[in-house]
Design goal:
By secondary structure, this protein is mainly beta. The chain has two helices and ten strands; from the N terminus they run βββαβββββββα. Strand 6 and strand 7 (about 70-75) form a beta hairpin. The chain is globular, with a radius of gyration of 17 Å.
């Protein structure tokens, strides 16, 4: 490892892959079609940092070469999108949602805006009705989390049965 200070950490939903960041990342949103497909969402929320400032601390991600210029890293066990990296750049991005504290990475710019979906504007507070998870829960649904917690755990951690 290194004696540098960890400033953020994150990982996949199942806990098989974890990472540490040694610099504060810069948040952005990419609306390009590749990012929409890679995340299965309206856009990708990404946090940019130097490649040298990321260390995989548990497991290793699988990779998909999504274009001639870039790879997308993900957990092979649970499918969580984890990172995007250009082959020829000194920086990369981790997915903001995979960070243990995504609220600490403000989004400061948009990319790929030519493919921004019109419904993204409706996400602004007050534009659509808001409901909490508890408000949509059903007495017959088990909503207890089986995902890895938002902090590092012992290597033998397993989700509750």
């Amino acid at each position: 490892m290194t004696d540098r200070e960890i400033v953020a950490s994150g990982g996949c939903q199942c806990g098989a892959v974890r990472y540490a960041l040694y610099a504060a990342p810069e948040g952005s949103v990419c609306h390009c079609r590749m990012c929409q497909k890679a995340t299965g969402g309206l856009f990708a929320a990404l946090a940019k940092l130097a490649k040298a400032d990321l260390v995989w601390t548990r497991g290793a991600p699988a990779s998909f070469r999504s274009s001639g210029a870039a790879f997308r890293d993900f957990c092979a066990q649970c499918g969580t999108p984890l990172a995007f990296r250009y082959l020829d750049a000194p920086h990369m991005e981790v997915t903001i949602g995979s960070l243990d504290h995504p609220e600490r990475v403000p989004v400061i710019q948009n990319f790929g805006v030519e493919r921004r979906l019109p419904s993204v504007a409706d996400l602004a507070p007050g534009r659509l009705p808001d409901k909490t998870t508890a408000a949509i829960a059903s007495a017959t649904r088990d909503l207890s989390s089986r995902q890895h917690p938002d902090f590092d755990t012992a290597p033998d951690w397993r989700p509750p049965a």
